């Protein structure tokens, strides 16, 4: 029977080196989790560092300030929503879709599903708006929101007025999902019934 080779005492297996890019990505993921819970001012950077297994000074070697890390987390959140909308639009086929279903309504459905499936994205979105008393953060959040708005318009081909209705109802659903998530399905159903004549399902 073969036996494992003896390992000299005092030696340890070599650790796999993690690149700065991978660490940065992991820190943003951790920041999304932490900032979603306690916001910009209530989240110590050390807690984010511990989640990834690095020292706080290392975090600041990649992100000069906590604000920079917060902005990176917020931009990842908005980017994730864009990806979900794009995937929903790509999967829409008018030939097989239900009557009166449109690309915009499919995108709306995907947002409702996101609100129910990933609460951290909802929470971080609200934390981003709450942090907009900081001018730098406000500029980045405004840019991210404007980019998302344009993305929805490009995907759906909808007009500005209909898009405004879509986004307004989406904000309402975001607040509703935060304070009373159990009522979200009923609200969506009522909205669909009210717009069953062919108007947009603004979510």
Describe this structure in words.
The chain has 203 residues and is mainly alpha-helical. It has a domain at 68-194: Tetracycline Repressor, domain 2 (Orthogonal Bundle), CATH 1.10.357. The chain is built from 9 helices and no strands. α4 packs across α6, α5 packs parallel to α8 and α6 crosses α8 (160-179).
Task: Produce a short descriptive summary.
This protein is mainly alpha-helical and 203 residues long. The chain has nine helices and no strands. Helix 1 packs antiparallel against helix 2, helix 4 crosses helix 6 and helix 5 packs parallel to helix 8.
List keywords for this structure.
203 residues; mainly alpha; Tetracycline Repressor, domain 2
Please give the structural blueprint.
Elements: H1 20-42, H2 45-52, H3 56-62, H4 66-90, H5 103-117, H6 119-130, H7 135-156, H8 160-179, H9 184-194
Helix pairs in contact: 1-2, 1-4, 1-6, 4-5, 4-6, 4-7, 5-8, 6-8
CATH architectural designation of the domain at 68-194: Orthogonal Bundle
| CATH topology description of the domain at 68-194 | Tetracycline Repressor, domain 2
Report the sheet with the most strands, covering strand number, pairing sense and barrel closure: none
Tell me the fraction of residues in β-strands, as a range. under 5%
Structure summary, number of beta strands:
0
Residue-averaged pLDDT: 87
Order of helices and strands: HHHHHHHHH
Which percent bin holds the helix content? over 70%
Radius of gyration: 22 Å
> SS-based structural class?
mainly alpha
Could you name the CATH class of the domain at 68-194? Mainly Alpha
State the separation between the terminal residues, measured CA to CA. 66 Å
Count, helices: 9
Shape: elongated
Uncertain parts: 199-203
């Amino acid at each position: 029977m073969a036996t494992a080779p003896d390992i000299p005492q005092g030696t340890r297996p070599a650790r796999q080196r993690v690149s700065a890019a991978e660490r940065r990505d992991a820190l943003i993921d951790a920041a999304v989790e932490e900032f979603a819970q306690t916001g910009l001012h209530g989240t110590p950077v050390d807690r984010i560092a511990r989640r990834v297994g690095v020292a706080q000074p290392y975090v600041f070697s990649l992100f000069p300030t906590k604000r920079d890390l917060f902005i990176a987390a917020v931009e990842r959140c908005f980017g994730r929503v864009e990806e979900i909308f794009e995937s929903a639009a790509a999967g829409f086929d008018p030939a097989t879709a239900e009557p009166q279903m449109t690309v915009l309504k499919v995108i709306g459905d995907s947002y409702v599903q996101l609100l129910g499936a990933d609460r951290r994205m909802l929470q971080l979105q609200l934390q981003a708006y709450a942090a907009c008393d900081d001018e730098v953060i406000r500029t980045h959040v405004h840019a991210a929101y404007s980019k998302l708005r344009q993305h929805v318009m490009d995907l759906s081909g909808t007009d500005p007025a209909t898009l405004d209705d879509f986004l307004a109802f989406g904000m309402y659903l975001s607040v509703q999902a935060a304070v009373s998530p159990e009522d979200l399905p009923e609200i969506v159903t009522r909205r669909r019934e009210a717009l069953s004549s062919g108007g947009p399902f603004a979510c």
